[in-house]
Amino acid sequence: MLRTTLTLLCLYLGLAPACLRAQHQPFFSLQPADTLHKPRLWAGVGTASVLYGSALVILHQDWVSNGSNGSFHTIDDLGDWNQMDKMGHGLLAYNQSRWIYAGARWAGIRPRAAAWTGFAGGQLMMTTLEVFDGLSTSGGFSWSDMGFNLLGSGLFLGQQLGWHEQRIALKVSAWPKKYSSDPVYPVSPVGSEGSTTLQQRAEDIYGTGPVSLFLKNYNANTVWLSVNPRSFFPERATWLPGWFNIALGMGADNLFVKQGYEWKGNLNCNGPDCDVYQIDPAVYPRTRQFYLSFDIDLTRIPIRNRFLRLLAGALNVVKIPAPALEVSDQGGVKFHAIHF
Predict the structure, then answer these.
(1) Are residue 161 and residue 126 in the same domain, yes or no?
(2) Most CB atoms closer than 10 Å: which of 29, 98, 205, 225?
(3) How many CB atoms lie within 10 A of CB 230?
(4) Which of 26-40, 177-191, 215-229, 283-297 has the lowest mean pLDDT?
C-alpha cells in the first residue's frame, strides 16, 4: 500500500523518473540525497501538508473573527501603497520557491523537477493567500498581486533552469521607524473632539513586531534586487569575491493610507458622523525611494559546516546593512553611511 501510494504521488507531481531509483542514506542528515529518499519525501510532504493546513485554519479564523468572510470578489489595487505591497508579493513568492526547492533536493528529487516543485509550491501558497483576500470584505482578489507572485516564482524558476543557480535574488531590509506623536485632528465632522497621531496610525495599519516590520511596514522596509556580478563574468571578474553583490532597492515613506492622504478613524463607520483625518501632502509627501548599495550573497560564502550553510541559505532573504545611495522621486539625493 505504501509503495502504491508513493508511486501515485510521484506520478501526480511529475516526478516518475526520480522515483525509479532510491538510495539508502541516513534520514537525519543535511546532505541532499543523490536519488529519491522515500522517508525524506514523505516527511517533507507530511510537514508541508501540516503547515499548509494549519495556515488555512489560522487564516480562516482570522478572516471570520474580523468579520471578513464575504462573497468572493476582485479589486484593482495596482496603485495602492506606491506598489510596495506588490514588491512584497514578488519577494515572498521568490523565496518560498527557493526554500521549497531546497527541501525537494534534500529529498533526492532531481534538480529540474525540484525547480518546478519549488515554483508550484510558491504559487500554491501565494494563491491561497490571495483567495482569502478575495473573500475579505476589506480587500479582494487582485490580479496584479497574482502577477507579481508569478514574477517572483518565475525569477527563481528561470534562473534555476537556465543557469542552475540563483545569480539574482530578491531580498528585504528593514529598520523600526519613529513617527510624529503630535496630535492629528479630524477634518470632519466639524467640532469633533477625536484625535490620533501618526505613530498610532502606523501601528493600526502596519502592526508591531519584527514580522510586520519586514513584511508589512511599507514605510520601514526596502525590497532589493541583489545581483552577483562575478557569476556573469566568472573568468574576467576573478578579482571580485564570489559572495560580493550589487543591490538595487525600492522603498517608500509617508504611506498612511492606500492612496492619497485621508482616512477614516473607523473603517466600519458610515455616515456624516465618522471622524475623517487628513495630513498635509507638503509636510508628509508620499515618496518613492530608490537605492544603490552593496550586499553579500550568504549562499556563496565557503562554509564547510552543513548546518551553517543551511542557516545561511535561509537567512539570504535579508539584505546585509551597507552604505547606500538614495534617490527619491521628490528630487532628493542622499548618501547613507549605513542603510538597513
Answers:
(1) yes
(2) 98
(3) 20
(4) 26-40
Number of domains in the chain: 2
Separation CA 93–CA 125 (nearest Å)? 8
**Is 227 a member of any domain?**
yes
pTM: 0.87
Residue 249 structural domain: 167-340
Among residues 116, 139, 165, the one where a domain terminates is 165
- CA angle 31–36–40, rounded 5-degree value: 60
C-alpha cell at 104: 525537494
Max Cα-Cα span within the chain: 77
Beta strands per DSSP E along the chain:
74-75, 141-142, 168-174, 221-227, 244-253, 262-264, 276-278, 287-296, 322-328, 333-339
What mean pLDDT do residues 267-271 have?
80
Closest of 153, 117, 156, 118 to residue 14, by C-alpha: 117
| Dist CA 286 CA 283 (whole Å) | 10
Domain contains 6:
no
Q: How many CA atoms lie within 13 A of 105 on its CB side?
A: 17
* Helices within 31-83 (DSSP H only): 38-65
